[in-house]
Amino acid sequence: MKGHKNNWIVFGYTEHSYRHISIVSQRAGEILESLGYPERMIELAKIAGYLHDIGNCVNRTDHAHSGAILAYNILKEMGMPVKERTEIMMAIGNHDEQTGTAISDISAALILADKSDVHRDRVSNTNLSTFNIHDRVNYAVTDAKLKIDSIDRKVTLNLTIDTKICPVLDYFEIFMDRTMMNKYAAKYLKIWFELVINDTKLL
């Protein structure tokens, strides 16, 4: 891939590099912090967020599973206690909507953090004429905020979608599984998940 600053341009996927993992790491920690979790668990959620997509180095298919094993071994070599690295392994192994689900507080926070990162900055393809539906939907999202309300016990994903680029319905066409995964992850944390698009509450 010599000559490319971002290999995801070559692969044709949305951006999964430092921008994405930094956002996911920060949000996963913020979710647990807002809900009053212990400092160490917050730190583990951040680590899981930072490492969650490492499996893409192997293959996009089943990247959650290969990533879980890679992360486990890396953290083992770094001397992390077995219980903590197992928590991170389980969270990473369950963050993909095709094969995973929330099985722990850390995994639930990781899911919410990961699936809330929808934005035009994630579109690697710069040729609008060749956009597929994933490119189009991500590019149409001009603003995405995840707000945690610890008092009312809810988390809100607030999106601004440019409907000149794609209709709101297209978002649900490709992200319905992720939306339901978010809803279940929030339920695991005993909070409510809300989805607001263009100032309209949809969930």
The main pleated sheet reads as: 4 strands, mixed
Number of domains: 1
Query: H/E element string?
Result: HHHHHHHEEHEE
Instruction: Tell me the structural class.
Output: alpha+beta
CATH architecture: Orthogonal Bundle
Strand order, main sheet: write it out. 1-2-3-4
- Globular, elongated, flat, extended or rod-shaped: what is the shape? globular
Note poorly predicted spans. Answer: 1-12
Looking at CATH, which topology would you report?
Hypothetical protein af1432
Task: Describe this protein's structure.
There is one protein chain. A four-stranded mixed beta sheet has the order 1-2-3-4. The protein is globular and about 50 Å long. Residues 1-12 have low confidence and may be disordered. It has a single domain (7-201), classed as Hypothetical protein af1432, CATH 1.10.3210. The chain is α+β, with helices and mostly antiparallel strands and 203 residues long. Helix 2 runs antiparallel to helix 3 (39-51), helix 5 packs across helix 6 (105-115) and helix 6 runs antiparallel to helix 8. The protein contains eight helices and four strands; from the N terminus they run H-H-H-H-H-H-H-E-E-H-E-E. The relative contact order is 0.13.
Give structural attributes:
four-stranded mixed β-sheet; globular; 50% helix; 203 residues; disordered N terminus; alpha+beta; Hypothetical protein af1432; single chain
Could you give the topology of this structure?
Layout: H1 7-11, H2 18-34, H3 39-51, H4 63-77, H5 82-93, H6 105-115, H7 133-140, E1 141-149, E2 154-161, H8 168-188, E3 192-197, E4 200-201
Parallel strand pairs: 2-3
Antiparallel strand pairs: 1-2, 3-4
Helix pairs in contact: 2-3, 2-6, 3-5, 3-6, 4-5, 5-6, 6-8
